[in-house]
Amino acid sequence: MKLAETKAIPLNELTLEDLRTLHPLFEADVSQLWSYENSAESRDSDGGTSKAKVREQIHIVRKR
Q1: What is the predicted pLDDT for the residue at 27?
Q2: What is the pLDDT, as a whole number, of residue 63?
Q3: d(CA 21, CA 16)
Q4: pLDDT at 54 (0 to 100)
Q5: Is 19:11 a contact under the CB 8 Å cutoff?
Q6: Which residues contact 30 (CB under 8 A, 6 or more apart)?
Q7: Does 33 have pLDDT greater than 90?
């Protein structure tokens, strides 16, 4: 966050080169971190926000 603040840009606008100044192991897929859909889909536990879990929760509620 500090790097983004220093550059006065949002986190999702940091380049791969910017991030590699923080740690050399950052890869191109780091940009997926800023995706809302990827973030939501990664929560695939009970009560999670993935599409599958939300559908499951809707199904359970409708059965009541």
Answers
A1: 95
A2: 94
A3: 9
A4: 93
A5: no
A6: 16, 19
A7: no
Q: What separation in angstroms does the CA of 50 have from each of 29, 30, 46, 58, 60?
A: 20, 20, 10, 12, 15
The CA distance from 50 to 41, in Å, is 4
Rounded CA separation 41/49 (Å): 6
Residue 33 in tokens: 């971190």
Flag whether pLDDT at 19 surpasses 90: yes
Q: Report the sign of the C-alpha dihedral through residues 51, 53, 59, 62, in that order.
A: negative
**All domains of the chain in start order, with CATH:** 2-63 (1.10.40.30)
Structure tokens at 9: 């840009």
